[in-house]
Design goal:
heterodimer; A: mainly alpha; Arp2/3 complex 21 kDa subunit ARPC3; Hypothetical protein af1432; about 55% helix; B: two-stranded antiparallel sheet; 17 helices
Chain lengths: ~500, ~425
């Protein structure tokens, strides 16, 4: 899971949203951290599903080119018109010191998009700087500040993206500035007297800034949609309200920066950003820690698997499969995350089963079968102390229950079985069927699906089986590689996960 | 017997509030309590200056105190409350009127806010966190005592004075922050028997990012209150809320990580490879020894991970070693287990230091091309000790095990580590009595 170097979900996007969001227009291609596509549906924190191909130079459609051209042309036209009306740019240039600080602030913000803790999103507080510019130096100055997005220090943005982002920022800042002026806002550092009156015009300007910013970006994403399979940019819709809200929150900071300007000068304004950058640092720590966590867990699970040689990679695939089902049935992000870990750990208890039993040749005695059937409980004993959702623990404990009540360890039936356990059971059995076993080769995905359907209702929850089938058809399923291998000793004990090869108790007579 | 599981990382659940305060904390709380009594008495006698401002800041502090945050190492912080308190200590002008609260009033108001903010924690069955509150209060007291007299001597009236005020605020806030770190370090050095210098360094490292955010917010509140009045309090808390949220997520994942490694280290026990509780006991022992030897918190965390997972290589053995005690296995086999374990940990790709410690745990400390890392030496000794003593608490058995280790200090076990182990073990049994 973490092996493909994906940044966790918390890593991404941008508050003053920029054009890096589409699946294919990623900010950092190739090695290292990938900016995650905003369209990652269910709050996955350690993404596994879409492989990140470093394909950021996908071709744009002619329509998209036209759109970019139009936006850029509009920005240039506005700037030219401003120059025509005021050739010396008296407004902004007469305050070159203010302009310089604003541009610097803007670049700092825009070069370090801060990931924040709401689902997938992360913001750069740069919209607060453009809005401060609206108040301090007026619409044209704000346009110039926004246009410096062209020079953001960011890896992986290509020229087209830079030009588009710069034009987008410039235009939205200018429009916001015009509205601010029209509603009677004063340009220049606010003073005591300007305080409640300034709030109305500023609020309208801020809303407009955010809306134009989002609308322009939205158009771009419609014309150059994400190329990920099953990700038609739809997830952006889901997050849009949240992003707009958070942008508005940041926009209010613009007024604070402007207000402080008249009291403490630029330095005080910079202080506004300190808590935000500390937050960004903490999120970076969180992300690193979470990656470390996921990969440590994966490594430990692999160590557990070494004991049972033929189930290599099983935990990870079950984890992935369970998460696919969970997302398909619309579980929320934190539950998907929990089930991912539950799937990873579901067989940890098998360590308590003696190796001689796991690799036994032939049928099992009653005691040996009991030892196998105890493994979910042992697993529970191991992971109980992890601060998981209780649900995940229930999932590990009951993943061998059957819908008809003939499973183990407790013989629960139907809805008595916790949902997590029913999910894991499906993914678990499916992976067992599509993997090589010593006593049979791997079944194809189609055969395995047919088998799942055959046992749906008796062994599996039918709704979850269908959800899984739909998810597999959409996202695909990665079968373990390799030809069937026979162990040296000719082990023939059936896999306990394999629904087609139920464990049998040897006849004691 | 305090500070065994709470040594690093997060204390086990329920433990933090059950454990009694130790002497250092008691002293701190008593000192802060006396300060509060003096401040409240003085304020009551002189009358509350500008009650509206006091009320607003007090409310903010209470709110921030409700939203406490746990940082690594079981530290507690209340960034929003601290920002409010520091803001109240350094604010000069509110809505065009000079703010006149004397230092003792600042302390009284902050204390009142804190106590109110602690009530919901008590109601929820958590600890009131007296020691944390006391150290935060003393930090504020330092700032107020330094800054309030200054502000009456040099009244700020003209805009260009703000540069001076800014410098003054920054300086006193740094002083306040240092005072808090110093107290924290003294407490943990006393409670955990860490070395003071190491403890101070750890404290400053952990407190720096949030401290910067809190100080910046306090200064912003002080500045913006001039123009915006008391509204500034609410407004400038927003960025800090975001910061706090980020830290909370970080704290949660850190805790989960440690719990998971602790839990998964038990797989060797469930699998019958080692005795029950072995990994955890070696983990605790190693951390105590490491601290005795002056290791810092990040090093200790790495050491704890390595100690917890030191037997993970045994999973690759087809059959468990009889009794699971690696101390009695052949050197060749020990090396193999260590190597296999290091390979497993290497797989994670993020724990290189841990893998290194595990890899060299089987080597004698002398006679190699290069000395094994300290962590490896500690684990080697702690593992041998636990293999010999196990969960037993008999003094005679402990003494025999230590004697056994001491006999081998020429080549096998690092004498410094063995001596530290002896100290730690001695303490352990005194604590039990």
């Amino acid at each position: 899971m973490p092996s493909d170097g994906r940044a966790p979900a918390a890593e991404v996007t941008n508050a003053a949203p920029e054009w890096i969001r589409g699946g294919r227009w990623r900010a950092c291609a190739g090695t290292g951290r990938e900016q995650l596509a905003d369209g990652d549906p269910a709050g996955m924190v350690t993404g596994t599903e879409h492989r990140s191909a470093g394909e950021r130079t996908s071709k744009l459609s002619p329509g998209a080119w036209l759109y970019v051209g139009a936006v850029v042309a509009a920005a240039v036209a506005v700037l030219a018109q401003a120059l025509g009306a005021d050739p010396d740019l008296d407004g902004p240039v007469s305050q070159s010191w203010t302009m310089a600080v604003l541009v610097l602030l803007f670049l700092i913000c825009d070069s370090a998009p801060a990931a924040l803790a709401f689902g997938q999103s992360a913001w750069s507080p740069s919209s607060s700087v453009t809005l401060a510019a609206v108040v301090l130096v007026g619409p044209v100055g704000a346009l110039v500040v926004g246009a410096t997005a062209l020079f953001s220090v960011r890896r992986g943005l290509d020229l087209t993206q830079r030009v588009f982002n710069a034009s987008m920022y410039g235009l939205s800042a200018w429009a916001a500035g015009q509205v601010y002026l029209a509603l009677g806002g004063d340009v220049g550092p606010p003073s005591h007297g300007s305080f409640p009156a300034i709030i109305g015009p500023f609020a309208v300007a801020a809303v407009l800034h955010v809306l134009i910013n989002h609308a322009l970006l939205w158009g771009m994403l419609m014309l150059a949609p994400a190329s990920e399979p099953g990700q038609p940019g739809g997830a952006l819709q889901r997050y849009l309200p949240m992003l707009v809200l958070s942008d508005l929150g940041y926009a209010t900071l613009g007024l604070l920066i402007a207000a402080l300007w008249s009291v403490g000068g630029a330095f005080a304004a910079i202080l506004v950003l300190v808590p935000l950058f500390v937050a960004r640092w903490a999120i970076g720590q969180f992300a690193a820690q979470e990656r470390a966590y996921a990969s440590t867990m994966a490594a430990l699970c692999q160590a557990v698997e070494t004991k049972d040689w033929y189930t290599r990679g099983h935990s990870e695939r079950v984890s992935r499969g369970s998460a696919m089902i969970a997302r398909q049935v619309g579980m929320r992000g934190s539950r998907v995350e929990a089930i991912r870990y539950a799937g990873m750990l579901h067989d940890v208890g098998k360590l308590g089963v003696p190796t001689t039993v796991l690799q036994k040749n032939g049928a099992l005695t009653e005691e040996e079968l009991a030892a196998v059937q105890l493994h979910p409980m042992r697993g529970l004993a191991i992971v109980r102390e992890i601060g998981f959702l209780d649900e995940a623990l229930a999932g590990i404990m009951h993943h061998h229950e059957r819908m008809d009540g003939r499973g183990y360890p407790m013989g629960l039936a139907g809805d008595e079985i916790p949902e997590f356990a029913r999910v894991i059971a499906v993914a678990d059995a499916f992976d067992a069927m599509t993997s090589n076993r010593s006593y049979r080769g791997a079944r194809s995905i189609e055969e395995a699906i047919a088998d799942l359907r055959k046992w749906s209702g008796t062994q599996f929850d039918p709704a979850l089986v269908e959800a899984f089938v739909a998810a597999v058809q959409r996202e695909g399923w990665e079968q373990p590689p390799g030809a069937p291998v026979r162990p040296a000793g000719g082990v023939t004990v059936p896999d306990h996960d394999d629904p087609a090869a139920q464990l049998r108790v040897v006849d004691s007579k | 017997m305090k500070g065994t599981t709470a040594v690093i990382g997060e204390p086990a659940q329920g433990e933090s509030w059950q454990r009694a305060m130790d002497s250092g904390e008691l002293l701190l709380v008593a000192a802060a309590g006396m300060l509060v009594v003096a401040a409240v008495a003085q304020t009551a006698a002189a009358g509350l200056v500008q009650p509206r401002i006091a009320l607003a800041f007090g409310a903010l502090i209470s709110f921030g105190e409700v939203l406490r945050l746990s940082l690594e190492g079981g530290r507690e912080s209340a960034p929003i409350g601290s920002a409010g308190a520091f803001g109240y200590a350094v604010v000069l002008i509110v809505g065009g009127q000079p703010a006149l609260q004397p230092a003792l009033q600042v302390i009284a108001v902050v204390a009142a806010g804190m106590v109110l903010g602690a009530l919901p924690h008590l109601a929820a069955g958590r600890s009131a966190g007296l020691a944390g509150m006391a150290s935060r209060l003393i930090g504020v007291a330092v700032v107020a005592a330094l800054f309030r007299p200054l502000s009456t001597i040099v009244p700020i009236t003209r805009p260009r004075d703000w540069g001076l005020a800014l410098a003054g605020m920054a300086a006193v806030l740094v002083a306040g922050w240092l005072a808090e770190c110093l107290i924290g370090a003294l407490i943990s050095a006393d409670a955990l028997r860490a070395r003071f210098r190491v403890a101070l360094w750890d404290e400053m490292r952990v407190q720096l990012p949030l401290g910067a955010a809190v100080a910046a917010t306090a200064i912003l509140i002080a500045f913006a209150a001039d123009m915006m009045g008391l509204v500034a309090l609410g407004v400038f808390i927003a960025p800090l809320l975001v910061t706090q949220m980020a830290f909370r997520r970080y704290a949660v994942i850190r805790a989960t990580y440690l719990q998971t490694v602790r839990a998964l280290a038990r797989v060797t026990e469930v699998g019958g490879y080692v005795e029950d509780g072995h990994a955890r006991r070696v983990g605790r022992l190693a951390v105590l020894v490491g601290r005795e030897l002056g290791m810092s918190e990040p090093e200790l965390l790495e050491l704890e991970y390595a100690a917890l997972m030191h037997d993970i290589g045994q999973l690759s053995l087809r059959d468990p070693i009889p009794g699971g005690a690696t101390v009695l296995a052949s050197p060749e086999q020990q090396r193999r287990i260590a190597e296999l374990g290091a390979c497993v940990i290497d797989q994670a790709g993020v724990l290189d230091g841990v893998a290194e410690i595990v890899r060299y745990q089987s080597l004698p400390w002398r006679g190699q091309e290069r000395d094994p890392p300290v962590g490896s030496r500690i684990i080697r000794a702690a593992n041998a000790f636990d293999d010999l003593v196990g969960a037993s608490t008999e003094t005679s058995r402990t003494m025999a095990a230590l004697e056994w280790l001491r006999l081998d200090t020429a080549t096998e076990y690092d004498p410094r580590v063995v001596e530290a182990l002896a100290k730690v073990a001695g303490r352990r049994y005194r604590g039990r009595r």
